[in-house]
Design goal:
18-stranded mixed β-sheet; about 375 residues; mainly beta
């Protein structure tokens, strides 16, 4: 009986082993398509990496790799009018990868449930790219760019159209954006060489470094540092707890940090700047009509303003060692003669008013604990 049973068991094992090998066997599939300028490449993958190389010509070459035999039927590649459609719905082909060489003139609509997307070479069309959690890397995009990932990094060269870019928590690094920029990450750093139009940029907790912004700028982080070049329009800049540096601006500037230093240079508009605990440095050229405020809870403030400006400056601070005489003015130093001095013995504070050239723009400066300097801007 045992002699008859052994061959049966062996045969069963061979069948099972053959079935396992068959189910895990991987294969590839290739395709070629002729395309015209401005055609659309539409790729939708349940999972897997997408690797694209751009060039000249009018042909798209596709190589789908590492497809399990039992999921081959879940891959379709076909051309429908001016659109090439590639769809893969497989779930077991963990190493699936899609390699393409395409003309740079194609528009891209790419999505994958959980892989990286790489575009090697420049694109002259639009790019709509999304991944559930991988990285997105591209070179120059001549059209619009709509790029999103659930948690990876995003890096591109120049974008000549509008840019809508987001990641759940990775880093964003972009060269020049010639259109409107809308960028956000849940917690990574953001680096942009420059934005020639308006910019809306935010991160949940990383640093932000932006060159010049041609239009208005709305820039915020939950807790990192912010560095910005020239802003051509209104600017709203805030961080929960880092430093803010702005090289120059021409519109209304609203700047705040929970606990950090603020440096504002070459400001031709008007400013509302506040920090809970930090120093403020501001170079302000007022227009004679607007109202500015510089406030810190604990820290020093230095205002630099042209001697020819039409302005009324009101500076106030607490005095640690109260004396009630001119020695209290050591906390507020100025290149201008004061027009009025008010002392409040009850809360040990002092307020000094300076009327420059008949007055004009109202500039209020206050620190709860610190020194104030008002200097001529040279």
């Amino acid at each position: 009986m045992k002699k008859k049973l052994f061959p049966l068991i062996l045969t069963t094992l061979v069948v099972v082993l053959s079935l396992v090998i068959s189910l895990n066997a991987q294969t590839s599939k290739e395709a070629k398509f002729d395309v015209g300028k401005g055609d659309l490449l539409d790729v939708s993958l349940s999972q897997g990496n997408i690797d694209i190389t751009t060039g000249s010509g009018s042909e798209v070459n596709v190589l789908a790799k590492n497809i399990k035999e039992n999921e081959m039927k879940l891959l379709t590649m076909e051309k429908k009018g001016s659109r090439i459609e590639i769809v893969f719905k497989g779930e077991d082909s963990d190493d699936f990868e899609l390699l393409l060489t395409i003309p740079s003139s194609l528009n891209l609509d790419l999505s994958t449930g959980g892989g990286n997307v790489i575009v090697n070479g420049d694109l002259s069309g639009d790019a709509d790219v999304s991944t559930g959690g991988g990285n997105i890397t591209a070179k120059a995009i001549n059209g619009t760019a709509d790029l999103s990932t659930g948690g990876g990094n995003i890096k591109t060269g120049d974008i000549n159209g509008n840019a809508d870019i987001s990641t759940g928590g990775g880093e964003i690094k972009i060269d020049i954006i010639n259109g409107v920029a809308d960028l956000s990450t849940g917690g990574g750093n953001i680096y942009i060489t420059s934005v020639n139009s308006s910019a809306d940029i935010s991160t949940g907790g990383g640093n932000i470094n932006v060159g010049d912004v041609g239009g208005k700028a709305d820039i915020s982080t939950g807790g990192g540092n912010i560095n910005v070049g020239n802003v051509g329009g209104k600017a709203d800049i805030s961080t929960g707890g880092g430093n803010i540096n702005l090289e120059s601006a021409e519109g209304k500037i609203d700047v705040s940090t929970g606990a950090g230093n603020i440096s504002l240079k070459n400001i031709s508009g008007f400013v509302d700047a506040s920090t809970g605990a930090g120093d403020i440095y501001a170079e302000l050229i007022p227009d004679g009509k607007t109202h500015s405020e510089l406030t810190t809870g604990i820290g020093d403030i230095e205002l630099r303003i042209p001697g020819s400006a039409n302005a009324t400056i009101i500076a106030s601070t607490s005095v640690t060692m109260w004396s009630g005489d001119d020695s209290d003015l050591e906390s507020i130093k100025s290149d201008f003669e004061p027009s009025n001095v008010k002392r409040n013995r009850e809360n040990k504070s002092i307020e000094v008013t300076y009327v420059l050239n008949g007055g004009g723009s109202k500039i209020e400066i206050s620190t709860g604990m610190g020194e104030i300097q008002i200097r001529k801007l040279k």
